[in-house]
Amino acid sequence: MGCLVPTMALNRLPAEFREVLVLFEIEGWPYKTMAATLKVPLGTVMSRLSRARRRLREELTQIQDGEIEDEL
């Protein structure tokens, strides 16, 4: 499975959550840069990132628990 599971979990997130998660965690963008680029308040970036992390954990848990085996 390797990289398939995290990628699948990430792809299941809503676009606005996936976007901030990738920009911050993978690309290393600072909050202020994301807020300016996405044209949203700084607080929105921070709350989306928090929600994105929580949803990603939930998706990974579901996959790990075999609740979505048919998608693999």
Any overview of this molecule?
By secondary structure, the chain is mainly α. It has a single domain, classed as Arc Repressor Mutant, subunit A (Orthogonal Bundle), CATH 1.10.10.10. The chain has 4 helices and no strands. The longest helix has 23 residues. It is elongated, with a radius of gyration of 13 Å.
Key traits:
single chain; 72 residues; mainly alpha; Arc Repressor Mutant, subunit A; 4 helices; elongated
What is the topology?
Elements: H1 4-11, H2 15-26, H3 31-38, H4 42-64
Helix pairs in contact: 1-4, 2-4, 3-4
In short:
Helices cover 71% and strands 0% of the residues.
**Overall SS class:** mainly alpha
Total beta strands: 0
Q: What is the N-to-C order of secondary-structure elements (H for helix, E for strand)?
A: HHHH
Intertermini distance: 9 Å
Average pLDDT taken over every residue:
89
Largest sheet: none
Number of domains: 1
CATH architecture: Orthogonal Bundle
- What's the CATH class, please? Mainly Alpha
Radius of gyration based on Cα positions: 13 Å
Shape annotation: elongated
Q: Uncertain spans, ≥5 residues at pLDDT below 50?
A: none
CATH superfamily: Winged helix-like DNA-binding domain superfamily/Winged helix DNA-binding domain
Helicity, as a percent range: over 70%
Using the coordinates shown, work out and report the CATH topology.
Answer: Arc Repressor Mutant, subunit A
What proportion strand? Answer: under 5%
